[in-house]
Amino acid sequence: MQNTPIQIGLAGFGTVGTGLAQILLHNTEWIGKRLGRGLHIKTVLVQDLNKTRSFIPAPDTRFVDSIDALVDDPDLDIVVELIGGLDKAYEIIAGSLNSGKSVVTANKALLAEKGPELFSLAARKHLGLYYEASVGGGIPIVQTLKESLAGNRIKSLMAILNGTSNYMLSEMSQKQIDYSQALTRAQEKGYAEADPTLDVEGWDAAHKLCVLIRLAYGRDYPLNMLPVQGINTVSVYDIGKAQQFGYVLKLIALVKEQSGSLQAGVFPALVNQDHMLSKVDGPFNAVVLEGNAVGPIMLYGQGAGGLPTGSAVLADIMALVNQNAAYNNTGFLENDLRTANILQPELTVSKHFLRITVQDRPGVLAVLARIMGDQNISIAQLNQTQEAAGQFVPIVLLTHAAQLQQIQSAIQEIDSLEFVQSPTVHYRIL
Ligand code: NAP
Ligand code: HSE
Which of 132, 188, 189, 193 to mutate for ligand 2's pocket (most ligand atoms within 8 Å of CB)? Predict the structure, then answer.
């Protein structure tokens, strides 16, 4: 009995599913040493049974296209969901839990939308729902928050969580290519989601941030309350300007606790070139967090790709096999997580970068300075590129710390001025 292999039902045999199967094949002996038994992929659910597969998990693995073959198979010990998307993935996960099987998933989108409901179901059924691969690819951030830092209050967490956006910003900054070329390259390399708007509009990072907030604070931060902005409006020009002032532009996911309330969001921001996150390039992800006992910690690694993400999926499978106490899915005794106290995003305070495109004529700067002064915003640095008098020119302003709502009011007034050519570009500086 001790040596009976664990039977796995795998939903999805794309980048991550194939990566998982490759690791199982190459590390069979090592996994056996840790578990005392083998892991066998009995069934693989795919969409297209006619697709040519360059690799199969085991000679007797059965490929199917109906979820019943996973959900209703009493011989399966664990179901691994790696198809992505919402409805079908939900059917697989809920169906598997309802039929008594623990589940491993990498599906951050589904967890962000339906996590609390699925955690409640798993708790009612006394089953595991593990999701290390849903955030940060191969980086062990879920386990770190759930187990290693369990005794800490997390003061803040600042992270690069979307490999596609980070790769694109790195390419735009280092190779001077434009946004659409950078996106094409990211897609060719397999970093992007099936729907790449999830990456570039910030939603993929937002999904991951929701998962991390629950693990760090034991509260649900509803996705529809999270302020989310992606990199889809970022220009090479602004990246260059940020560099001139000593900053690197990054897509940041941030959460901070302030007097029992959470301030969180996903947005492109200027990060000082001395900050650790400014050095995170290409498809890599990183999480910098501060615990009240441990102090600052940084986790860094490959945020996407078959083998790194497969490594995280495999860790969850092995943890489930080794589990002999009650399953710990949320990291808290509460499995029905309450909604967090949320700090209004407009009240957050930081420095800001503004690019205002104005007609170069007398009095313009005085008007801008008056508006900033009226909003109690102090200007820290200013740069204007020389053009012929009367032409439109970009003025880049860096402010001292100011409340977001004051900046938004100033931008609204500035953008209504007749000498302003186009909407002001605005980033927070962290
Ligand atoms: P993928 O390469 O697009 O593969 C998806 C797999 O699921 C394919 O085998 C596909 O079947 C199957 N599939 C899709 N829709 C299906 C349906 N309705 N019914 C049955 N099978 C279906 O996806 P992936 O990149 O491996 O991503 C899988 C999950 O991991 C997603 O939740 C993703 O967000 C997450 N994730 C991915 C990465 C990464 O680096 N790629 C990293 C972290 C997390 P066919 O083979 O027949 O087309
Ligand atoms: N599309 C995701 C990214 C894959 O670019 O980070 C990993 O979750």
Answer: 193
* Residue of 101, 146, 208, 250 marked catalytic: 208
Q: Give start and end residues of each alpha helix (H) in 323-363.
A: none
Write the single-letter amino acid at 203.
Answer: W
Cβ < 6 A, ligand 1 pocket: 12-17, 45-48, 51, 82-84, 88, 106-107, 133, 137, 193-194, 304-305, 309
Tokens representing 72?
Answer: 């209703």
Give CA–CA dist 341/363, Å, rounded.
45
pLDDT of residue 1 exceeding 60: no
Task: Measure the CA–CA gap between 116 and 121, rounded to whole angstroms.
Answer: 9
Q: In this structure, are residues 266 and 229 in contact, taking their beta carbons and an 8 Å threshold?
A: yes
Domains and CATH numbers, the chain: 6-130 (3.40.50.720), 141-303 (3.30.360.10), 345-429 (3.30.70.260)
Residue 330 is predicted with a pLDDT of 82
Distance CA 249, CA 265 (A): 16
Q: Tell me if residue 248 falls in helix, strand or coil.
A: strand
pTM of the model: 0.92
H or E segment to which residue 71 belongs: helix 68-71
pLDDT in tens, 70-86: 999 999 999 999 999 99
| β-bridge pairing 154-160 and 284-291 | antiparallel
DSSP string, 378-426: PEEEEEE----TTSEEEEEEEESSEEHHHHHHHHHHHHTSTTEEEEEEE
pLDDT tens, position by position, 6-54: 999 999 999 999 999 999 999 999 999 999 899 999 999 999 999 999 8
Task: Ligand 1, residue 303: give the atom nearest the CA.
Answer: 42
Q: Which of 106, 93, 61 is nearest to 305 (CA)?
A: 106
Kindly report the number of other CB atoms within 10 A of residue 319's CB atom: 18
Q: CA 410 to CA 196: how far, in whole Å? A: 33
Highest mean pLDDT among 94-108, 190-204, 353-367: 94-108
Q: What is the pLDDT of residues 171-205, one digit of tens each?
A: 999 998 889 999 999 998 888 888 999 999 999 99
At 324 the pLDDT is 66
Question: Residue 4 has what DSSP assignment?
Answer: P
Taking CA atoms, 351 is separated from 42, 231, 282, 402, in Å, by: 55, 19, 26, 6
